[in-house]
Structure formats: C-alpha cells, structure tokens
Design a protein that fits this description.
Elements (H helix, E strand, L loop, with lengths): L2 H6 L4 H11 L1 H9 L1 H7 L6 H9 L2 H26 L11
Amino acid sequence: MNEDSDWNDVPRGIDLLIQQAAVDQDFKNLLLERRAEAAEAIGIALNPAEKAMLGSVPAQQLETLITQIKAKKGEIVQHKLMRVRAPRGIQPDRP
C-alpha cells in the first residue's frame, strides 16, 4: 500500500463538521443540538466509528474544539495577510 492510499482511508467526517461549525454559527448550533442530522445536512456520511465518537463527546468539549479551530483559522488568515504585504522601504511608482 502506498502512502497516498493510506491517507485516503482516514475518516475525515468529524474534522469537516468541526471546520464547518467554526465558520457557520447556524451549523454550529445544529451540530451541538443534533449531531447526526448536522452531518446529513451538509452531505457528510459518517462511518460507524465516527458516529460513535461524535455521539460520545460532551457538548462543552465539542464547543471547545470548534472555538479552537475558529481561533486557529483566524491566525492562519492573519498570517497569510502578513505575507502578502510589501516589505518596508518599497514604495509604489508615482506618475
């Protein structure tokens, strides 16, 4: 088995649900209240192990995960913005 196919077998459903909840407050509320329904709402098919894991996580812990992902996404966006800024000392050409 090659390395690429190893990653294709890794379940990502919960990861995708948490990432979506980090950027969509309505979806976050749905995920916290009705987890299985939330996955179906955005077309994610969870395998039995993912369903069991998602069902066993306390709501407070799930909310903490979502908050951490949201904060991390903010850091990534800020970092990308910093990378596209022009270095000091460079000025635009003036007509």
